[in-house]
Amino acid sequence: MRKEDKGVIISQLADTVKQYGHFYLVDTTAMDAASTSELRRKCFKSGIKLVVVKNSLLHKALMNLDVDFSPLFDSLKGTTSVMFSEVANAPAKLLKEYKDGIPALKAAYAEEGFYVGADQLEALATIKSKNEVIADIVALLQSPAKNVISALQSGGNTIHGVLKTLGERAE
């Protein structure tokens, strides 16, 4: 491969990392063509971009970015596929579907944190996405207001009943 071609690939990888924000390094060595094709289909349906990369080129691409990705460099050995996603936990949820551990998680960069090792899959799957966090915050904000309104409504009926009874006795 020519030096110019490598430069283009490094630049494209760096741009993809910037675009998606979350990525997983996965070992797909033990997968045959049919299972790799199935993984690609599942990734496409989940909004995940799956790319097989050359470790040295990905290493150079990560070095060209503003973030220090050095915790991931030891994971760049063997066959590496990268799962790029805009939702931090989407690739982890997809990988959990594979019970036999193939494809295997090597490392991940999600929500500005580093996760190294296959044992981090559960932690990655439980990360809340931006939309899930926003939904939780909205629910928390709505809950007290709903409680106050329901208390006022139920209390209003009780107060109205007491006043009506007192009014009837006074007559």
| Secondary-structure element pattern, one letter each | HEHEHEHEEHH
From the N-terminal CA to the C-terminal CA, the straight-line distance is 101 Å
| Uncertain segments | none
What's the count of strands? 5
Overall average pLDDT: 82
Our estimate of the beta-strand percent is 15-25%
Report the radius of gyration as a whole number of Å.
26 Å
Multimerization status: single chain
| Count of discrete alpha- or pi-helical segments spanning 4 or more residues | 6
Largest sheet: 5 strands, antiparallel
From the helix content, strand content and strand pairing, which structural class follows? alpha+beta
Strand order of the largest sheet: 2-3-1-4-5
Percent helix range? 40-55%
Q: What spatial form do the alpha-carbon principal axes imply? A: elongated
